[in-house]
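Entry 14. Ran structure prediction on the chain below.
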Amino acid sequence: MSEIGMNVVLSQSRYTMMKLNAIKLISWGLCLFVILQANSLLAQASNRVLNLFPAGTVLHANIPFAQDTLKKHLLDIYLPANTTGKIPLVVFIHGGGWLVNDKYADMGYMGNTLTAMINRGFAVASIDYRWASQAIFPAQIQDCYQALTFLCEQADKYHLDKNRIAIMGFSAGGHLASLVGLANNNKLPEFFMKGKAQKFNIKAVVDFYGPSDLTGLESSDDPKAPEAILLGAVPIERPDLAKKASPVSYVDAQDPPFLIIHGEKDKSVNNKQSKLLSGWLNSVAVKNELIIVKDAPHFGRMFDTEELKSKVLTFLENALKP
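Output, structure tokens:
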């Protein structure tokens, strides 16, 4: 074969190899795309509250917020459709006596409020945290602050305005939401994972029936009570630990405004806990509103009425203005 013929054969061979490599790259790319799409669809399918949100809501599901593989260190981010720029963030903390439930809990009966929040341009991040049966206090507040740290560090990626943050919590989550908001400016390194301490721009707290003073709960002398399991000690026997975990311990004039909502007939957390928190906030002139919902129990759809939804949305919009 002539030299020219050899060159033609080699060129054809190289072309064939390049074509095969290109096909392989395209195939790998398609496989990766399919896997990512499948994971996204699986995450959406396993999210039992996504149907409560408006059509088109963008879900970023099961995002690890700590450098570990704990299932209790995951969060979900819900964004309005076609989000551009930076939007205010509401961090949602579930209840369950610090012992049960997950990042979907409490959302189930707050559909009207969640829909309105997304429609008004708020991002919602629902976080998990370790139960007291897995790790005693301050693990729970450490997890909340660590999730908040992650959200601030990844704010650009998810279109979040880290300078406009509100915290919303229910029952035990209300306790943690209040603690996050009130202890934010108290420089407590033990509330943060090592090397993660910082101050956040928390502009508002919405506390649904959360305990505010763990020494004042009716079960504070019961070693089997949730607050005793949380602390690893009976509150009235270790008031120092109870004080450390009580939101009222951190009230000062620099705290953000509060909207506090509690049921009139709550048999799990007496509404005196919310009245006490409101009283402490009033004593240092921190703006707050206390709403006692007539005939309402500890949780449920009575907290998602049109009237309360409007109260919550107005409060958030005023507090999180650009």
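The chain has two domains: 1-46, 49-319. Will compare against last week's run tomorrow.
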